[in-house]
Amino acid sequence: MPSSEWFLYLIRCSGGQLYTGITTDVERRFSEHKSGKGAKFLRGKGPLELVFQQQVGDRSAASRTEVRVKKMSKSDKEKMIISGTIKPAQT
């Protein structure tokens, strides 16, 4: 049975770009990205560094939070990484 707890995560590419995603298992998903089996956006952009992860609730809340973070400026994402937290999207 899949976990009902979802996480938002950010990965930094070698060029400094930030990739945002959601998953129920950050370690597994990051391993997939590093092996080239994850998002096409990250292929060939290694080494990859997992720079942020936070539990954000159920799938619906995670999806809303992901959309909100993807709309943020890079400088706001950097501030979020430094602070180590983001407020999940409201249900």
Produce a short descriptive summary:
The chain has helices at 26-34, 59-70, 74-83, and strands spanning 6-12, 18-23, 49-57. The protein is α+β, with helices and mostly antiparallel strands and 91 residues long. The protein has a three-stranded antiparallel sheet, with helices on both faces.
* Poorly predicted runs of 5 or more residues: none
Number of structural units classed as domains: 1
Label the overall shape: globular
CATH architecture: 3-Layer(aba) Sandwich
Task: Tell me, rounded to a whole number, the average pLDDT.
Answer: 90
| Helix-strand sequence | EEHEHH
Number of distinct beta strands: 3
The CATH topology is GIY-YIG endonuclease
**DSSP helical segment count:** 3
Question: What is the oligomer described by this structure?
Answer: single chain
What is the CA–CA distance across the termini? 23 Å
Question: How would you describe what is shown here?
Answer:
The chain is an alpha+beta fold and 91 residues long. It has a single domain (6-83), classed as GIY-YIG endonuclease. Helices cover 34% and strands 24% of the residues. It is built from 3 helices and 3 strands, in the order ββαβαα. The chain has helices at 26-34, 59-70, 74-83, and strands at 6-12, 18-23, 49-57. The chain is globular, with a radius of gyration of 13 Å. The model has no long low-confidence stretch (mean pLDDT 90).
